[in-house]
Specification:
Largest sheet of chain A: 5 strands, antiparallel
Helix content of chain A: 25-40%
CATH class of chain A: Alpha Beta
Oligomer: homodimer
Largest interface: A-B, 34 and 34 residues
Number of helices of chain A: 3
Chain lengths: 143, 143
């Protein structure tokens, strides 16, 4: 069975470099849910070399900082799971105390409806956030 | 309200260094569930300096590699959530295709009972795993 993260971007492409790409997840009810996807097919974080791991986590930190700066979330959630798609990808999720699952993980049962107006307010901030991200990720790749 | 990860180890202490500690989680139904806890109270991964983040993730990779080497899991799950306890801690979880939740995240609903015999087999391997971990974490801290 073909790996979906080898076959496709895996979401709305924000930026792509030689080693990794950043996409916005589109299939879930969280407006600020990004993924850092390692381009090469490796299953586990420790399949990367130490230098690759450091680079990967610098990109994760860049995305986290952009979410904090632009959206002031209650909390950031980071995760590399891959049980369904064992191709290394880091979930970087801005969480809010009003979101549908907070304080539970996004993979648990929803606790309340997601307020559409607040989601729309966040969504309007994503273009500026993503423009900033592209600049920072390009700078990181060139460093 | 006092932070529980400032007040206590947060689980069975495996190793403690100046910057971080590793504990085995005891409150969940997964036999190989560890946490890398940053000793100082910071909420987010990006509250650390770049050097601190690199050190933290090297420790996460050491734990991941020990789990892979000793237990040959189906997958490793890594996560830093902290919605309930906003003190930086990394979950490092060995997942097996027979475990109670696989392939769902451990925070989703259980899919089947957890097989006690298989859990016991894993549990018997943890002392050797943790002895190895202590040596490697000490070496990392001294590097």
């Amino acid at each position: 069975m073909a790996c979906p993260l080898c076959a496709e971007d895996g979401g709305a492409l924000v930026w792509r470099g030689d080693r990794l790409r950043v996409i916005r997840a589109q299939e879930v009810g969280f407006p600020a849910f990004y993924r850092v996807v390692w381009n090469a097919h490796v299953a586990e974080f420790s399949d990367l070399t130490a230098a690759e791991r450091a680079h990967c986590m610098q990109a994760v930190a860049v995305v986290e900082q952009a979410l904090r700066q632009h959206l002031s979330p209650t909390k950031i959630n980071l995760a590399a799971l891959g049980n369904m798609v064992p191709h290394l990808h880091w979930h970087v999720i801005a969480r809010f105390d009003w979101d549908s699952h907070f304080p539970a993980p996004v993979w648990a049962a929803a606790q309340r409806p997601s307020p559409a107006a607040r989601e729309a307010t966040l969504h309007a901030r994503l273009p500026a956030l993503e423009n900033g991200l592209r600049l920072q990720l390009a700078a990181l790749a060139a460093a």
